[in-house]
Structures
1.
Amino acid sequence: MEQIQIPPVDLAVVAPLITVVGWAIVLLLVDVFFVPAGQKRITGYLGIAGLVMAGAVAAPLWGSDSSTFGGMLVLDNFALALTWIFLLIGAISMVIALDYLPRQGIEQGEFYPLIMFAVSAMMLLGQSANLIVMFLGIELLSITLYILTGFAYPRLSSEEAAMKYLLLGAFAAGFFVYGIALIYGQTGTVQLFSTAPGQESLAEYLGRQTFAAVDLTLLLVGSGLVLVAFGFKVALVPFHMWTPDVYEGAPTPVTAFMSVGTKGAALAALLRLLDMALPSLQPIWLPVLATLAAVTMLLGNLGAIAQSNVKRMLAYSSIGHAGYLLLGVMTVSERGVQGFLFYLLAYSLTNLGAFAVLIALEQRGEAAWSLDDFAGLWQRQPFLALAMAVFMLSLAGVPPTAGFVGKFYVFMAAWEGGLGWLALVGMLTSAIAAFFYLRVIARMFMQEPVRDVQPQLFRGLTLGISIAAAGTLIFGILPTLLINVVQQTALAVGR
Amino acid sequence: MTIVIQIIFALIAMLILGSALMMVLAKNVIHSALWLIASFFGVGALYLLLQAEFLAVVQVLVYVGAISILILFAIMLTRAADLAGETGRQWNNRWWLSLAVAGLLFGALIVPTVIGETWNVAPTEVAGAAAGQATGIAGAAELGRGFVYEYLLQFQVIGVLLLVALIGAIVIAYDETARRRRVLTLAEELELKKRQEAREAKEAKQSRKGKGEKPLPAPVPTDTLSKGNEGNEGNEGLVVR
Amino acid sequence: MLTDFLPILVLFLVAAFIAVFVIVVSSLLGPRKSTARKLAPYESGMEPIGPAITRIPVKFYVVAMLFIVFDIEVVFFFPYALVFRELGVPGLIGFGVFFLVLIAGFIYEWKKGALKWE
């Protein structure tokens, strides 16, 4: 038996990941041993500290371009940017959950380690260059989210949401595995692209030979199945049926977390798959994805119009936003990648903020989420109303908010990528979307209160909303701050 | 030799497909679960035929041994167990749509796999087989090496995945207040049931006597059972019928 | 090689034969006088009560779930046991980390009280 070479494990590549996972495991034990019941927000503080520390660990890695575990895990600026976005998402979700959980009577210390596990899964997805690793990342993320969705245990809608999510998610996982099997069956590899000379990978395989589409049947069918699985996770339109129910039933901080985190992580993985492994097949997958994106933008936003429940409306609108994000994914270009990152950050801040405002309106047993409840919010809680207005404008893509710059970026990428019609569809649907976003603003500022709603603000919630609103405005007014950063990311991906 | 293997394969395939079909068609959901176990077992035999003996053992150990028990437990947690045998077929209204989708998917998957000549065997495996080395990638020793070298990352992620699953089981299904609630033995449960029946009979007699329209008290037999926290009655599974 | 499993196949065939044989022979030769008492399921003298399929407490499910998690964990250790000398220190580290992660889970569930029955 010949001795197998030990692949050198480059700890720098996995340092942020290990920090988050290790901290989460320790936090789990600390919580169960030392944190008394009723004071679980201490766990929350510690969890936030862990995420901040992981961000600090990741900081000196900027600019590196390395891989480890036999090239299965890569660290480039794209992955690092994603890592920071996911850490930020996790931290804000925890901040807004600090007061939410005790107020809802569902405070359990496991919430915070679970969020950290989910964040680590997202980071894994952002870094993976291997289909198996991708699958494990998606599974880790999904299982964590099933648990978090059902976290509001006695509330039936939460259980129903968890059940629906679990059943459809498990189905999607089956598609993913079958897809991988077929891809492997044809190519003999599950590595996306080679990180070392001589390493077999999908990109190598496709680069080596010139095929007619007929010869690629297995690969194409497999990729199709993988795409279906991603569609489920991201809630692209033919696979979006679960989204409104799950997002409405899940505890609000969890909804906020998964509406931005899952989409970002899954689409980042899809971006790597399409842009780095299968770019030569673009003529085949581009029409499919373009159609999906168009339908997603249209139906997501049209569905949102009909909603009078703001949480459900945001669920539908998040479907629409998945379509906009997809625009950045499908144009194999630096502009597309930059647009994707910018849009992801802008959308994350905005959506987290919007859901945080919903938390302020939610009390145990009753949630004041209908449009009527927003009427006259300006007179009661000017801060909440102003913040919500900023978020709604950003979601609608109105300057001077980050949402506008993000939309501009992805539409430009689509336009340059020869998808002018898709950019037009995007603009059209943005106009449709503006209707229901502005409706909320109109209710808040121009109407008298209809119902007796007492919004409650706590320190953590105020902080979360403030960060989100400030980020939305700053990146909207001074987008160059962020653009300079994201422009450094594209190089690594486009190699 | 190959003809024998083909016959065995045909038998195993029939076992898997037949029991899978029966699982879908069975009227009683418990019977479905039992058919599923048979199907799992067939898959294990298939692994053996593919010379993946470790996977075969794992299949029997984990799926036939553990997952199926979990499935049975899960069924018996629900009211479906109460209805077992009384329910009709599990058709829903749009079964034809499911049939069409399933048929299309099956076609899309089976046609390229059968017609396509594009199956590729990784060169390393061919080399390994030619050199007569260990039993392919699925040999247990090979897996052990893989976990430490080639697939170290996946292996560790699986560890975290299992940990999360464990947390999930406890967070979702384990109720800390339930620790104080005793689980009744079969005899105690029977005793409760008899007592309740007696009381019901008494009440029925009373109401027949025409003592007015006194509303029936809630049928909660003893304090041990009524101590549920709000909103999760019916989740405890301890319903005395 | 596949021929290694021939004894298993033979064993299956023998088992199947015995099962069929016993049923056929007893149905051919055995007397058939069924009484109510004979047809009743045997429960060690206890009076059989109700259907066997009843709703069970969720606790069973928790235990089963925890069992599966550790079952799968143990399955991963079988391959290691075969080659642990060959793998040496790297193997110890790799499996040690895996083991520690799950031990953390074990401590957690123990402290949480999920292993207590009452």
2.
Amino acid sequence: MTVGVAAATWAHRHFLDVEGLSREELERILDLAVDMREARAARAHQSMLENEIVGLAFYEASTRTRVSFELAAKALGATVVDLGIAGSSVNKGESLVDTLRTLERSGVTMIILRHGSSGAPHLAARTTRLRVINAGDGTHAHPTQALADALTLRDAFGSLAGRTVAIVGDVAHSRVARSNIHALGTLGARVRVAGPPAWVEGFDAWPGVEVATTVEEALRGADAVMTLRVQLERGAQPANHIAAWRLDEERMRLARPDAPILHPGPTNEGVEITADLANGLRSLIGRQVENGVPVRMAVLALLAGVA
Amino acid sequence: MTQAASFILVGARVIDPSDGTDAVRDLAVREGVIVDALSDGAERMEGHGLVVTPGFCDLHTHLREPGGGAETIESGSRAAARGGFTTVCAMPNTDPPLDSPSAVRGMRSDGSCRVRVIGAATLGRRGDVAADLAAMADAGAVGFSDDGASIPNADLTGEILRALAKLGLPLIEHAEDAVLADGSVMRAGSIATQLGLAGWPPEAEVSIVERDIGLAAETGARLHLTHLSTAASLEAVRRAKARGERVTCDVTPHHIALTDAWVAGSRRFSWEEPEPREELAYDGRCRVNPPLASREDALALLAGVADGTVDAIATDHAPHPPERKLVPFDEAAPGLIGLETALSLGLAAVEAGRLDLPTLVAALSTRPAAIIGEQRGLRAGARADLVVFDPSARWRVEASVLASASANTPLLGMELLGVVRLTVADGRVTYRS
């Protein structure tokens, strides 16, 4: 492995968003993630982050993102502390900034922050000396998920240049969608978003983004389709969604033959996607999860300045 | 309280919107009164390059008394004087609200500034029962408002307007439909979409503006719409004025000079190209209600000041302690301080060629004063009530130089144009630098 040898320094102290990263920077992360996949299998780089203490601050429930960050940090030899915020003093009124400053004084060097408020990682970056990695903020961004998705698609296509990716679902409330719009667009793909009017409201003004208003329009000619979880807790009516928007075999015939399907998980099988599709040959949902750890290893290594 | 001012200011640009004066000449004050000439040995102040105008009048100030902490009448009055204001109108959304004659009387003026009181329009600002408006008017209230919210329904608004028509005092309305605005934290638009922040639709404001203009016309009452933030509201006011209706309005300095791009980290004025910066994005100090306008609307509001449709620039000075701002954007308390930066933001617009200086001065002094029945002017024989400022000097906004007890403004750290040299209220020096 040659990771870390003679690599250019990484220009960003924090990892708050995909927005603002150049195509070269994104490709570099994905290339490094490919190396990390191999390194992880070979149990290499196990002391790469030995000087880092990584704090997991998840203010919202998360399983897959939290676990993959923890595995990524541990695979590189970091000390990992999970704040277990649900049961800590944080929920007794301590402010985010106070909590993070306490961690900083305790020796934590990097914080992986999941928060329900858009922009919470920006606040953390501004008010502490911690290096901040955004693990999902409000409806704003989920940059490492977008990296995992981009890597999954790059693995499938070789390059995203010129590919059309349709993102179907509640785009307005989706941080995954926003980060994918940035990531896929920067990597050369055309991004089409689609959903009922309230779910794509405002996206027509997003530079470079196409808005489709029917599932047929969304899927026609798409090289890949990403469907988002229907957030039943926001009052979505499953029956309506199934009729108008659920991905099934028949609708998928409008897309390019064998166009892969992605979903950031967790899926409501039978609501936004049929179980057959989610578990079928087109589905890259498992690959997205598998790529979660190596892209997060890559981000951690770059921010720590060791890759 | 300092003693009565006596000085002669030599060769300053005198701008007095009350009689259209805009000339370089001397201005003399003896024992607190403006006089034609001074023969004795009063202090001589070099006025070259300075501007002297009537004292500023802020129609919308949060002094946080009673109940505050982030400001006091004393600190807020000093901030006012430092910003060139000689009158501030204290808003009633305090704890408890200023909803009774005794509460109105309890708002004493500090030496640095006249404090006039806007009474709550409804009891407890609860929006269900009108307060005793006549009794509060007797106690000195100069207008009524449930600021922080609109009067929630048309029935009650009509009842309040009918009562105010008899008193000759304005309803000062914060126009915002609570249902349409529910949950929003910044102006709706492409920036809100990209930032993943819930958007405030312009219809939330204009729907109440239209409702109130209709009710005011029907009742014959005076209506003053405060902190307008949309071009559509301004158009509604423009049409009402063209019909000869008794509607006035103000805009804040931050709604004309700042934009929603500031939430994305830009620190460029509305007339400049925005430049979002990740490291400044989601700054809770940019959260304000109504939210910072789109660039298009900010420029329309500024044009409304320039063409006179907007009667006044009012600060909506809203102090908050750091712990209410050093939180995620959607948790930040809305509001920013404005008394000490209002003139500077106005002068920035003048420098950019968007506004002429006499129009700015009128929007800060004589026109708002007229809305609350105060006279302003620099003619001989008048009690001296004026501000002297250097329109080309620059200063850096730092917490340490602000007289306000709070420093919640995204302008912190920026260098702004315009330094107040002297403020004289009711014949007495209230600020000098």
